[in-house]
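Sharing in case it's useful to others searching the archive later.

Someone asked me privately for the predicted structure of Large ribosomal subunit protein uL4, so I'm posting the question and my answer publicly. Question first, with the sequence:
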Amino acid sequence: MKLDVIKLDGAAAGSVELTDEIFDLEPRADILQRVVRWQRNKAQAGTHKVKTRSEVSYSTKKIYRQKGTGGARHGSRKAPIFRKGGIYKGPTPRSHAHDLPKKVRALGLKLALSAKAKTGSLVVIETAETDGKTNTLAKQVRDLGWKRALIIDGASVNEGFARAAANIDGLDVLPSMGANVYDILKRDTLVLTKAGVEALEARLK
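And my answer, the predicted structure tokens:
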């Protein structure tokens, strides 16, 4: 498929041929859901923790005699049955990550790119370079009508452009290796540089 290329000031800059195997696939919500869940679970901290009966702070002395009280036998105030006692089978620190085949992850990224292309939310720009001024870039973004956009560049991001974009709300910049399904789907507009298109095609072929 062919897509027009523009500059940041909105001027035309030719066109680019996009690989159909990456940018023109039929959408599959099940694959996208699997990849997004894999990403979010991997990012989850998993630091939730409760204190067990071996960790709560109480005396280890037997609380009352074994027989003759008319009540149940107890040896420790740390037992889960008592107020402020240890928690039984509560959450402990763990990883929420799970495995997902590399082919499914790659397919998910292709489907995310295709989804943006099919809805007309994919824009290709010549280069992501600016004078480093946030004001200049913010005006260009506003004129282009990008409200929540993700810009994916080539192997590395231009330092001045990254600095200018850092303070613009709703604008994120990633190198091609950082491209991922969750960030692509979360934004309204996906912007690729020509170098970004080449890098993604080389990565996914």
